[in-house]
Amino acid sequence: MRGVTQREVEGACLELLRRASTRLPPDVKAALRRALRSERDPIARVNLEAVLENVEVAEREGLPLCQDTGLPLFYFRMRPSPELDPGKAAARAVRRATEEGILRPNTVHPLSRKNPGDNLGRGMPLVRFLPPDGEGMEITVMLKGAGAENVSRTAMLTPEEGVEGLREFAVRTVVEAGGKPCPPVIVGVGVGGTAEVSMELAKLALLRPLPRRHPEAPLRRLEGELEREINRRGSGPMGLGGRTTCLGVKVEYAHTHTASLPVSVNLQCWAARRASVRMEGGEWEWR
Ligand code: SF4
Description:
The chain is α+β, with helices and mostly antiparallel strands.
């Protein structure tokens, strides 16, 4: 991409890791404050107050929001460029962030459980390329803690089960997760494609800021219905009861096979850490 160097991309990736690890996005903070205002249950209030205080201290002191700094996921929106290697830039940034204590060394071999100590390894960090949006480059980092990731689920529903089946599966997944994903959670739902595409979509859904509903009316309605139904079940903050189990539900979809209805649910904990930067015409806009 014209005008951006490999070193700048690496620097941007490192800064995104620092921001994502230590600051909660404003939309998530606002949603947590709203949840506290609407909460009557004393235990739920204590939990939300503790979370908000934790956020304040982390931001003030420049410390990670949670001791589990998660697995870093990188999303690049850019046209291919022979001068840039985004995967290499992301990997170098992850190594530096681990050395600086921004990230805890979380990454291990899946079977031997051996930890290389730098958050790198086969397939790590996860780097995905999304369709470019104009001439510039956009990089987004999401940090995904294990508590929330571990309760993700995929179901290969039949077309006959339809929207009702999806609804039942999504609500049950969140309710059965209880306190494990550190609620209040954000719920990503991916529908369609194939099994793995539906999970990718569920994760991508988590990148959409909270107040932003799906642009298509039926999906928008479904998001609102799922959110109300999940909160009506009363699991509450940390699964200890209360009004706010989820801060929002985001649905993304892709067309699928006529005989299939893949549905995936990917949860993000209250520490919904993400940060983005857009680079265009020499300007850098941090989001
Ligand atoms: S699920 Fe999230 S908040 Fe809970 S321990 Fe893991 S990273 Fe931290």
